[in-house]
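<goal> How does this chain fold?
<sample>
Here is the protein in question

***
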Amino acid sequence: MFAKSSGDLGSAYKVFEKMPERNLVTWTLMITRFAQLGCARDAIDLFVDMELSGHAPDRIRYRSVLSACTELGALALGKQLHSRVIRFGLALDVCVGCSMVNMYAKCTADGLVDDSRKTFDRMPAHNVMSWTAIITAYMQSGECDKEAIELFCRMITGQIQPNQFSFSSVLKACRNLSDPYIGEQVYGYAMKLGLASVNCVGNSLISMYAKSGRMEEARKAFDILFEKNLISYKAIVDGYAKNMESEESFLLFNEIADTGIGINAFTFASLLSGAASIGAMSKGEQIHGRLLKEGFESNQCICNAFISMYSRCGNIEAAFQVFDQMEDRNVISWTSMITGFAKHGFAARALEMFRNMLETGTKPNEITFVAVLSACSHVGMISEGLKLFNSMYEVHGIVPRMEHYTCMVDLLGRSGLLVEAMEFLNSMPFMADALVWRTLLGACRVHGNTELGKHAAEMILEQEPDDPAAYILLSNLHALAGQWRDVAKIRKSMKERNLIKEAGYSWIEVENMVHRFHVGDTSHPQAWEIYREMDQLASRIKEMGYIPDTDFVLHDVEEE
């Protein structure tokens, strides 16, 4: 009674302990409820006690204890249970097989997809649960989203009708691939089966559209949900924040409060990210006040978001104050603070923070090294940067990725060591992507190396033939060298390809409102007053003796 209805496991266990005799039903009930209510270690302990008492476990008990292993990440124990499952002839059971597929997929950071797949393939028959388990395993592995979609297609061609969890997983795979076209086809099938308005399906669709920047479609998917939950609001708020539509995210934040749905730490973190994305520090400060009121001020996730928000909004000291007052810091906390110092030009403080982090025993990750290498790049600390780069694998066991090589090319390029930057680029164990070459091209423009810059541009256009930024950088490199014929050729090529660089813009927050400005923008209601003030400021600084250096001014490809 206690275990089934009220969830009072304490009372249920007391009754269980006082039972003079226990049968398989009572053992099964207690193990299952412990596993279902998050007491995974207790479930495993009970399972061991049951076996020691002489009761032979069946498929239900194995399924429960395998789920407990999954929750704890106990892969070694899970493998032992797998061998016992085979010994007792339960390996062919669909329910037990699903639990083992899930256990192998989730018990390690990388996700043992191969072991999950072997378990799946050895099952003599499959149902929607086993298909969903293997699809989810591939989706969660991080690099097998295409395989997840292919498995979904195999499932539906094999006359197995997917459920809401199948649709949710495959839509997440489409999101990870940024492929809303396939996602829309999957969603169409979900609509046909009457599952489109189910929370987990709708939430995955919102997330998929948001990642692709299609917030109008994401909002439609949100609006048609039959019953919205906190995950629904989190998905749409996070989408607006990451697509720099923070006003919408704050409006929805107020809507959440009106619905009575409890706001969790992750929703607040999304709002703080939205405030940071547009530099709206007053919005962030309002959220800070709300968080103090709600009692979230010591939440690690929230504090990490505050550090990021304050540093991205320009108040690095406020970010450090939040960091300094944290009682429990993780690698994200340290990395956020190091990144903040690096972006504000405090390379020495960033490196000091990195050393302090190592002294506390916190293990750095790939993003931490991007931050410290960027700090070295900003101030030209070449020897320190090389030392840190070499320590990644030798000391910390982290294999350098593309972004780390990009930082090193930037470090050498900024310092004018273009030949060394090129040699470093050629030493990479994989083919350099367009970003690495774009970094080298930018350095060539700064230091006037036309030949190397031309080679870098060719490599960019070989990978991204429709990238207007490469054409413009190369055009300005030729213009800087007075090679106007080459400039004309590049401009002609851009016009033939109909390539136009997306206009940049800046923004400023005044009296709790964010104002955006594009180059040559006159849409603002106070545009003429703003330009008049700019002209007056320009006149005043010229009177003070300021002479602008136009060597690095980009030549607009539309100018003649």
